[in-house]
Amino acid sequence: MSAADELDGPFEKRFVALGDSFTEGVGDIDPSSPNDCRGWADRVAAQLIANDSSWGYANLAIRGKKIGQVLDEQLETALAMEPTLVTIYAGGNDILRPLVNIDGLMARYRHAVKKLVDSGARVVMFTGFDSAKAPLFKATRGRTAIYNEHVRKIADDLDIDLVDFWHMKEFQDWRYWDVDRMHLGIAGHTRMAKAVLKVLGETDEIDDPEIEELPPLSLLEKTVDNVSWGREHVYPWVKRRLTGRSSGDDMSPKYPELTSRIW
């Protein structure tokens, strides 16, 4: 039997990633990966497996999912895998809705995270990004701050690892983001993978992302760029919300079962 024919698992260590587009990897375009994207979680998993071949990995995250959907559709599946490591981030899509009860949502989020902790898994949470310099999302900055206070309290009470996205000011540089200005790009996902590995205390052999210098744009060029961005990215985003659709409708998780084969 060749190495390629060997059984994939069982695994002594099991990393399961839960969430929405942030964890699915949207923006880190890679046609060779499931759902055509790679992302920080895949990069972290690849490094963990390189460090220790006993790791298995599952990524249940799907773009567009709100907190309730993430918990309803992913939590029990994750627990059934008996994970030793879980990353979870959800709430960004709730914050963007016209009306949202953040306190109520976060009470449910706390309950779910406690179930993960009680299972014996090491859990990593994330604060939300500081959108102060993001024109489309600037108005939601206050909501994100409230969300973050809940996350910090949960992490402190349950002794959970925290990746503090809010205070990673390097991400205010738009070169870390995809052209849609809503999701991290390849450089951003790479930088986030390195941040997660640092929190985990794991060896990190991922190369620093290369950030190209951008030529200055004239006022006319900026205007044309913003109009194009609005037509290609903002309008479809708004239309989906008005019609009750999600970018993740009819999509499946990238890695629904534990595997070490993620390349």
Automatic annotation (TrEMBL):
Residues 17-190 form the SGNH hydrolase-type esterase domain. Transmembrane segments: none annotated. This is Lysophospholipase L1-like esterase.
